[in-house]
Amino acid sequence: MATAPARKVDPDFEAQLFDTIDKWIERDLKPVVMHHDHHDIWPEETVRQMTELGLFGATIGQEWGGLGLPATTYANIVARIASVWMAPTGIFNSHLICAMAIEKFGTPAQKAKWLPRMASGELRGGLALTEPDAGTDLQGIRMTARRDGDEYVINGTKTWISNGIHGHVFALLVKTDPEADPRWKGMSLFIADKRPGFRVGKKIEKLGYKAIDSAELVFEDYRVPADQLIGGVEGQGFIQATGGLELGRINVAARGVGLAEGALRLATQYAQVRRTFGKPIAEHQAIQLKLGEMVTRARAARLLMLDAAEAYDRGERCDMEAGMAKFFASEAAVRNAEEAMRIFGGYSYSKEFEIERFYRDALLMCIGEGTNEMQRLIVARQWLKRNPV
Ligand SMILES: Cc1cc2nc3c(=O)[nH]c(=O)nc-3n(C[C@H](O)[C@H](O)[C@H](O)COP(=O)(O)OP(=O)(O)OC[C@H]3O[C@@H](n4cnc5c(N)ncnc54)[C@H](O)[C@@H]3O)c2cc1C
Question: Domain check: are 165 and 224 in the same one?
């Protein structure tokens, strides 16, 4: 089953793009990471630079002003940035998943109204699915939308919404028929812009993934025009909200790859300068065993990421490949960050060194875009389907 139109990129353009991103990372991103992470400050200037780089239009079609990048190119960009600082990749990824729901399922009028401003980064988006009592079990959400003339009236609370404070527009999952059986048939997805009735409840304080805002969003008699129901038909919301998950999981895999490679890079450098018993610790076999495993893990994660992204770019169904990549790369990120912490010894625990951030940030990758428990179930179910007796 085809899930996305096949996309290709000119190799020269791709090489130029990677070069531009690499230079930006070295010149502008690296110097500001620790300050923003330690103080949990929204990276205004970084966001402005990412807008200039076109990252907010990375996967949006060129007809809407985006770059229309294939998943392979996009994943490579994400991994490059995440190998230095993972958090900013979450800002444009949440935005792009919101834009994808509109591009894939929206009416022509909705695409024309929202996508050009999202592709330019003038409007930043987010995905609002999770509620205080429903994360994995999305069909258990309680937020309702009731039709009232040319509007819908929405009530309920979302939580953990990335870009919740600084974003402008959200793909909002609600129940238009709370009694529907099966439950997913009563769900709809709205384009929710900030207007009266929509307020940020609170900013959630987190272990890692600092600087990007995760917020509770409260909707109280929030009135949204009926033409902001994505696709214009009720009951499609669950399919629309989960329709972007393959690309979302490839993105989380790419973030995992970046974290795994970044932790490896830091550990490799440190192991060659830190000396004990008269030689660099890299010459001790115990450290080499760790590095050997870390390199292998990072490489395997990258290959799984590319395997999933290539399948996606060919327009193939790739929930199994994306699930494997997301699961493996995020676990690789956690393991590599932990092993790097051990290689750094006592200094790993100091905020003067960067490695502790990799450890804090990596843990999130096992949760977002479907927990790793769920990924294993998705992989197994798809595997059994593809291999019937
Ligand atoms: C920093 C951060 C940013 C986030 N950003 C967003 C965002 O932008 N938008 C958004 O909508 N959400 C966002 N989320 C929410 C995230 O998607 C959810 O936390 C995630 O889906 C898990 O849901 P939950 O936390 O409710 O866990 P639960 O669903 O309560 O799960 C708890 C545990 O039970 C396991 N479990 C649940 N059901 C099963 C099952 N059937 N079989 C086996 N195991 C099961 C889970 O794997 C997990 O280990 C974010 C979360 C975090 C931490």
Answer: yes
Active site residue 369: yes
What's the token pair of residue 355?
A: 């490695």
pLDDT of residue 5: 57
Domain span holding position 42:
11-119
One domain for residues 107 and 31: yes
**Parts of the chain with a pLDDT under 70:** 1-6
pLDDT in tens, 349-365: 999 999 999 999 999 99
CA atoms of 236 and 370, how far apart (whole Å): 20
The answer on 374 and 278 residing in a single domain is yes
Q: Which of 127, 364, 371 to mutate to test the pocket of ligand 1 (most atoms within 8 A of CB)?
A: 371
pTM listed for this prediction = 0.96
Residue 358 CA to residue 310 CA, distance in Å, equals 27
With a pLDDT cut of 70, the percent of the chain lying above it is: 98
- Asked if 163 and 252 sit in the same domain, the reply is no
Ligand 1 centre to CA of 130 (Å) is 8
Task: Say if residues 67 and 60 touch (Cβ distance below 8 Å).
Answer: yes
Establish whether residue 214 lines the binding site of ligand 1, counting it when its CB lies within 6 angstroms of any ligand atom: yes
- Number of structural domains (the chain) is 3
The pLDDT value given to residue 184: 96
CATH number at residue 43: 1.10.540.10
> How would you class 153 by CB atoms within 10 Å of its CB: exposed for 0-12, middle for 13-18, buried for 19 or more?
middle
Q: Is the CB of 371 inside a 6 Å radius of any atom of ligand 1?
A: yes
